[in-house]
Structures are given as structure tokens and as C-alpha cells.
Amino acid sequence: HAKPLAARSGTDTHCPYCALQCGMTLRRADGGDEAGGPPGLEVAERPDFPVNRGALCVKGRTATEVLAPHARLTRPLVRRSSSGELEPAEWEEALDLVAAALARTRDEHGPDAVGVFGGGGLTNEKAYALGKFARVVLGTSQIDYNGRFCMSSAAAAGTRAFGLDRGLPFPLEDVGRTDCVVLVGSNLAETMPPALRHLTELRERGGTLIVVDPRRTRTAEHADLHLAPLPGTDLALALGLLHLVVAEGGVDTGYIEARTTGWPEARSAAMAHWPELVERVTGVSVPELRRAAKLFSEAGNAMVLTARGPEQQSKGTDTVGAWINLCLATGRPGRPLSGYGCLTGQGNGQGGREHGQKADQLPGYRRLDDPAAREHVAQVWGVDPASLPGPGRSAYELLDALGGDVRTLLLAGSNPVVSAPHAAHVEQRLRSLDFLAVCDVVLSESARLADVVLPVTQWAEETGTTTNLEGRVLLRRKAVDPPAGVRTDLEVLEELAARLGWEKGFPAGPEEVFDELRRASAGGPADYSGISYRRIAAEDGVFWPCPEQTGDDGSRSPHPGTPRLFLDRFATPDGRARFVPVMHRPADEEPDEGYPLRLTTGRVLSQYQSGAQTRRVGALNEAAPGPFVELHPSLAGRLGAGEGDPLTVVSRRGRAVAPARITRGIRPDTVFMPFHWDGDGRANSLTNPALDPVSRMPEFKVCAVRVELAGPT
Ligand code: SF4
């Protein structure tokens, strides 16, 4: 194993969980770790890292516990007969079985019968290697990843408007220095608590925070104005605000003329959304709409930040597009301390979408259907561009095809049995595969269905890079040796490539992979060619794009990186941002007699995503032991339900049972469930897989349900 890179005192690294990628130091301490991690390894604050300035949430503080041997896999597991149990095995047997299954399916049914499903928590190196493995070793187009469920609508809308998507086109610290923030569908006080300090700073400076969320979340409690639209109506809300900004003369015509195209059409679309109509659609009153429009348009600097609320909809791209239009009309994007940004969710949600595990993209955020991109990347990979497959299916479509024309799947760093929409169907699809191979740290609900499980290393046991929600490329350093019996994902891919007859070598050293990634990304939108491990270590992160600069005389000079995008021009061919006209449309499923309520889903502070890691941490489980159904007292009264009574939530796809949590902080026509658990309380048994036509994002955030008092079991 590589030696840990030198650090000041202990090992400076980053949290394994969310997209904030908080800086932390892992230290050896006498007497063991109270959290139950590997003996003597403890999490310490790292106040000099600007994103979190030493603050960590409870997930980060307890993150070493997942390293403990009792919490994770330490040996490969194989299912030696279709009716048998998973049993411990040697690596050689496990790798031989996986390689044989991949080869058999590829040879008998063609390369597209093999699927690869990755994750937004994988490092840049792993995401890159997985994409390359799929396209050159397997030759399949069928690769996508769970990041599609995260921020794909914002990515699509950002690319459409600005020519480039980078979650935040400015450092997070700008949030505390602007004058007005509209936070749409983000409960960051629970999902990434250290980010809250930037909003606190904003308000302490006299700035304004507007929160848009159907629930009065912990984040909404900090707001100057909380707008609570019906789930699935954020698009109408943004259009109504733009209508009012136009009507009240708040449009920045000089900016529109100088820096944008498409305003007349976008303006017409917004003017069709009268405030009274928007009030009827969203449930947000006209006076509240007027106040929000005035606060936003009259602020000196202002920004809109979106998260999963508006994005996880079957019209997510247009919804984010409507918020972008509001920003453009008021002259925000590309100006200091202003603009539009997306708060990415997963730890490497940003980098994970830039380097080739997405169905339609090559490393460097290049389009797979761009001949020049194919030529460049094929040259780095040493293959014929014509041999590279074309774009494949999006995540849910790929999962839906399992057991049909996709017969064998390699699943890495994802737990779709819990995290995918219409999860019972996805589980059934996984069960119908000819062969399922899973690379994971823990025996997740999805890994339990596998024919072979390959136990892999995790954050503190390996070195690699992630790219946080700001586009800041970071180095997660190795701090501790992994348990015997565990290998890195990169080593697994190297072994499988060799067994599948790939003779050109498949590097397994993270720095070697990163150097190849740099070359593959050179010249692309997400250009990493000027970034190196050494530079990241010296500068504590580098913002992309950061091209390698070569002078006429061949001399090289360091590019400073790009903390702020679009200051001079947008990344479109004419340098102008594009307004895209969008119109309100209803959710895919509207309430009716059989399903009269709306369900929305989300996260809680002490669990993370599918819970595969955090449900194994004692303190987190104690704080958030299971699912619940949040509902308004008036609805609880109609049902005859008291606090803690078991409720059954039923949608057209399934049912989930969880105790009632009664609060006035939710609309009476809406219920909320967190999605971190499997079993009876699995929220994603209910959710709707209707897809956004552009981003292919499922409609996690709204579906029609009915709620009943659960009968005796
Ligand atoms: Fe980790 Fe996110 Fe918590 Fe920071 S906010 S400690 S990155 S989970």
C-alpha cells in the first residue's frame, strides 16, 4: 500500500460523506477511539480549510466508525449456487467468477448486455477508471451512476443556460458576502450543517435569506421569508416571481442586452404566469410572492441556490431553468457575489459526473457524441475512436432494463435497492439478473443480492481526489492501512481488465490514474490538466478549469485555477447566457380521490443517503433510528393518529409503514418521509420513476399517496 502523504500533524483529509467535503485531520491517539473506529484514530478539526473552517457535523465526527472491522466487509463473498447463501471466498476465486460472468455475457449476448452502475461517492480516479473499464475493456455503452438521481437536472439546466455546469460557479464563502440568498429545496442545516455558517454570516451582515420549501425545516427557521409551495410547483413559483420582477421594473436591461440571448421568449412565458394564478398553483400567497420578488430584485448582490427539491422532478431541468431565468433577468450570473448555483449532494457528486461514468459523457465533461472528444480520449486510452460505444441508458432506465437486455451488472459504490425510485421494482430487476457483482465497503441491501461481493477500501484507507460542490479539487489522503483482505476499486478493475484480456495495462495507483485523467480531460470543459496531487496538497484544493499552460518556447506556467466562472463570458459559443422559455406543468402524478395527498422525501441530519454507511454507526443510529411519516396535526386529526402511531403510506407503486411525527411545519396536504432505510419503512417503495425528458432525473420529490392508520401486524 502507498505510504500516507506527509501532513502537518496527523493526516489532513476530507469527510467521506457529503459534497461539502469538510476538511478534517485524522490523528493517532493513545487509548483508542471512543467512536469505535480503528484503535487510536480520531477525527480532529481543521480550522484552516475555508469551506467548513473546522466545523463538522455529527456524521463527519463519527466517520471513523465505518472503518472498524465490525462495520464493514473484510473478505470477498460468493454465492456458489443460485439458491445458496453468500459465503466467504478467496480473492482469486471471486475475481475469476466475476471476470468469467462478464466475458460470458459479453460474448454470448454482446457488450451492451453488460451493465456498469457507479456512484457519486467514488473518487475521481475510480469514476474515471470505471468509465474507461466499461468503454474499452467491456465495450459497453450501458454505464451510468447514482449521481443521475442527485443533481442531473441542475447540470442539464446549467449547461443549457451557461454552456457549462459546475455546481457552484463561485466559492461557498461568497454566500456569506452577498446581500440576498434564495435557497430552493435545500435543508442544508441538516444535510450539510457547516454550510449554515455562511448563511448566518449573510444575515449578520444585514443580508436576506429566503427559503423555498414545503416544510418548515431547520433551515427555513433561519429565513427572513419562508415560502412553502406545494411539492412539484417550484417552476410556477419561479415564473411568478419573474412576472412580478418584470411588472415592478426590476429587470436589468443593460445586462440582458450585453450578456444574454432569448429574453423576449422567456419574458413572454413568465408574463403568462399571473401572481393570482401562481398563488392558486403553488399555495404561496400573492403578498408573499411580491415580498420575495422585491427582496430579490432590489438586493445589491443576490443569488439563487437550488438543491434536490426543485431538481428531483420530472420537470427538474425546466424548474431549475426558471430560477436561472430569474437570475439572468436581474443581472446576477457572472457578476461578483451573485449568480445561480446548485448545492450538489454526494461527496463526489461534482467530480463523479465529470470523468466518464455518466452514460453520455467522457472524461473532462466531454460529450460522448462529440467526434473531437472521442478522438482525444481514444488517443489517451490507445484505442480506435470508432471502437468507443455511444451514449447509453440513464440510471433508472438502466436499472429498469436489468434482466431484460442487460443481463450482468457490475455495481460499484451504490445501493439502489434503497436509493432508487420505485425501489421494489428495482430490487426485482436486480434479482432477475444472470449475474450481479458488487464492489462495496459494506454488505448493503443491494450487495446482499449479489453473486459475488468484492470488499473494497474506503476514504481514510486510500488516497484519491474528490471535487466538492464548488468545483474545488481536493486530496483525500490515506491515513490508515485497510484491513487485510480488502482491495481498492482500482486494483479490482486492474485485475478484471487483465482477466478479460486487456493487454495495455490498467493502472491501479491513484496518482497514476489521476495523471491519466488529467491528460484525458485536457481541453475539455472540466480541464484538470494543470492540477496535480502536489499542487492540491500545497494549495489545499484547486478549482477547475485549470489547464496546463505551455508557452511558445515550451515553458510551462501554472494556471491559477478558476474559483469564479463566467466573469467575462459564458461558456456558450457566443459567450452569452441563454434564456430558455419554460412553462408551468403539473407533476406526473397529481392527487386524486384514491391518492389525495402529496408525498415528498428527503434526508435527516444523522443519516446519509441510503444509510449503508451511517446505519452502521452507533451514535447516528441512536439519533435517527428509523423512518417516520411527518404530517400536519389537521391531517393526523382526520386520520385519528397520535404521535408515534404506525401509519401506512400507499402510492400506486407500493406501501411503507412508519410512525407518525406530527408537526405544524408541514403543509396539511403533504406528508414527508426520509429515505435512508430499507424494509417496511422504505420511502422509495413509494416514489415515482417518471423521468425528466432532458436530465432523465426521476420524480423523487413528489408523488400522490394516501395515508392510513396501520392495522395490527
Ligand atoms: Fe461530512 Fe458533509 Fe457533515 Fe461536512 S457536512 S462533516 S462533509 S457529512
TrEMBL record:
It comes from the Bacteria. GO terms for cellular component: membrane. Residues 8-71 form the 4Fe-4S Mo/W bis-MGD-type domain. CDD domains: MopB_CT_Fdh-Nap-like (cd00508). Keywords: 4Fe-4S, Iron, Iron-sulfur, Metal-binding. GO terms for biological process: respiratory electron transport chain. GO terms for molecular function: 4 iron, 4 sulfur cluster binding; metal ion binding; molybdopterin cofactor binding; NADH dehydrogenase activity. Pfam families: Molybdop_Fe4S4, Molybdopterin, Molydop_binding. Coiled coil: none annotated. This is Molybdopterin oxidoreductase family protein. It comes from Streptomyces bathyalis.
